[in-house]
């Protein structure tokens, strides 16, 4: 936490709420990018996990094209170890939007032999890259729209909004194209594709302010709830069949919420009583650690660094 007092945080939150001009500008930019993708590519898809960032993009897509008229399918790469609250919400939201939902599973890649785990308990999160590239090949996608933001992690801060991927699905930071004056070079050679990040310039605070303003429904685990956890390496690890306590660890029930949601094996909640977007805005104003830094076990090790995974084809 930073040094500001609660009254100061409330005052700051109130000031942010009174001025929506920055949210209008971010929304306008995102709508423009979503329309640009529809105009520039033949077979785009929107990566949709059911998480808060992809739900914000969906709201912007509704404003860009109209309810029930999003011109590209939604694509989910499922590890098989996702929180059921999130996957259930994903299916519900796609049905409400009358959008095509394509789900491809890491378990299917394992059955094909293209993904092999080092041991049964290994996280499948990093192996999503293989399944994603297989889906790109299957549907011949030439652009994938993702919800990554530059404030989340150092490697993501290096991304362009239109991020070029070579014919192997790899990202080369030094080979990215300039984006001066919001002009995007979308030319592709055979086998190449783009990853497009319309909310690159948003922050976690912007996302929650927008969720509050637009009254966007989210999976329940984003808000305060009781959950059994153990403390491990400075994180609160949820106790599940996939993440049981280790020898000597004491379980306890705490009031927590998830700042970001991913695979169960690598995503941790934070202690929080925030039960509304407005309360989360206040917490976010006080946070001094990024949401991934505070909640992702897989970002704690250099071997699984985000930059290396992105170079290998990760989201």
Description:
- The structure is a single chain.
- The radius of gyration is 19 Å and the shape is globular.
- Mean pLDDT is 87; it is low at 300-304.
- It has helices at residues 6-18, 21-40, 52-65, 84-97, 106-112, 128-139, 154-157, 204-214, 277-286, 291-295, 306-311, and strands spanning 44-47, 74-78, 101-105, 143-145, 162-165, 193-196, 225-232, 235-238, 252-257, 270-271.
- Strands 3-2-1-4-6-5 form a 6-stranded mixed β-sheet, sandwiched between helices. Strands 8-7-9-10 form a 4-stranded antiparallel β-sheet, with no helix packed on it.
- It is an alpha/beta fold.
- The longest helix is centred in the first third of the chain and has 20 residues, at 21-40.
Query: Could you tell me the strand content as a percent range?
Result: 5-15%
State the domain count: 2
Order of helices and strands: HHEHEHEHHEHEEHEEEEHHH
- Compute the CA-based radius of gyration: 19 Å
Helix content: 25-40%
Q: Regarding quaternary structure, how should these chains be classified?
A: single chain
Please give the count of helices: 11
Our measurement of the CA-to-CA distance between the termini, rounded to an integer number of angstroms, reads: 30 Å
Can you tell me the CATH topology of the largest domain?
A: Rossmann fold
Calculate the mean pLDDT score and round it. Answer: 87
Looking at the overall shape, the CATH architecture of the largest domain is 3-Layer(aba) Sandwich
Identify the CATH homologous superfamily of the largest domain. Answer: HUPs
Unreliable segments of 5+ consecutive residues: 300-304
Widest sheet: strand ordering:
3-2-1-4-6-5
- Main beta sheet strand tally, sense and closure: 6 strands, mixed
The beta-strand count equals 10
């Amino acid at each position: 936490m930073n040094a500001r007092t609660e009254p100061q945080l409330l005052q700051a939150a109130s000031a942010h709420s009174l001025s929506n001009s920055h949210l209008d500008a971010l929304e306008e930019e995102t709508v423009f990018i979503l329309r640009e993708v529809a105009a520039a590519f033949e077979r785009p898809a929107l990566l949709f996990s059911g998480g808060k960032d992809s739900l914000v993009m969906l709201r912007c897509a509704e404003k860009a094209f109209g309810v029930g008229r999003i011109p590209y399918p939604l694509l989910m790469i499922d590890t098989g170890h996702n929180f059921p609250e999130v996957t259930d919400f994903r299916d519900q939201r796609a049905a409400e939007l009358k959008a095509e939902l394509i789900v491809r599973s890491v378990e299917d890649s394992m059955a094909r032999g293209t993904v092999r785990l080092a041991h049964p308990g290994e996280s499948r999160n990093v192996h999503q890259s293989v399944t994603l590239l297989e889906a790109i090949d299957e549907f011949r996608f030439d652009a994938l729209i993702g919800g990554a933001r530059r404030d989340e992690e150092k490697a993501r801060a290096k991304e362009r909004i239109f991020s070029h991927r070579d014919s192997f699905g790899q990202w080369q930071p030094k080979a990215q194209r300039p984006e001066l004056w919001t002009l995007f070079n979308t030319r592709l050679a055979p086998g190449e594709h783009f990853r497009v990040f319309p909310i690159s310039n948003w922050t976690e605070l912007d996302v929650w302010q927008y969720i509050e303003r637009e009254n966007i429904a989210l999976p329940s685990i984003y808000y305060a709830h009781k959950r059994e956890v153990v403390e491990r390496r400075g994180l609160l690890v949820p106790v599940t069949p996939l993440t049981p306590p280790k020898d000597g660890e004491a379980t306890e029930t705490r009031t927590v919420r998830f700042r970001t949601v991913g695979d169960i094996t690598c995503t941790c909640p934070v202690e929080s009583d925030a039960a509304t977007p407005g309360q989360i805005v206040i917490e976010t104003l006080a946070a001094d650690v990024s949401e991934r830094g505070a909640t992702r076990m897989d970002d704690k090790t250099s071997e699984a660094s985000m930059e290396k995974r992105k170079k290998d084809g990760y989201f």
